[in-house]
Input
Amino acid sequence: MKNILYNKRHIKEYLLYGFISSIIYIIPVWIFFFFSDYNQIGILYLGCILFMFAHMLYLVKLSFRRPEYKSSWMMIIAAHFAVLAGIVFAVLLTTLLCFIYIPGFLSGDSQEILKDAPDGLNNQNWGLLSILYLCATIGNFGSAGFMSVLGPYVFKKNQMKDKTAVLDPEVHAPRETKK
Output
């Protein structure tokens, strides 16, 4: 029996929902770059919250699929695959925005980008980059990973007949005994 988590259709679905959630995440990041104000740094965390809600919609869709995702654990694993795909896309899109809005992004010759920022934050923009990439990775994984664990237990209708997730059927197959 082949595992359904790794077939082509499901991998395309993980990439699709990961891309959609990263697009929703990158909108507040773009707004932050547009204003370039240190006092507006909370907008980045709004992007993490939107990323989480995009994955919540994916979990609602997964909860209505009966034959494939009978197990809550399968839903958790599938949702985490989509979260990881979304984080990869979010980091790539954040890097793209850094190339557009930060002159001399890779050379280290960039000027101060943020208005009203402390001096340590504008030192070759290392502070700004660390905030951007920590939000794109740790913030998104924390918020969407939490939703991925909580969601299957909230959205799944009948949990009384929950089956254990079998990731490798050969390991869990009954062994034949010799007589």
Notes: The chain has one domain: 4-155. The chain has four helices and no strands. The CA atoms of residues 35 and 114 lie 9 Å apart. The chain has a mean pLDDT of 82.
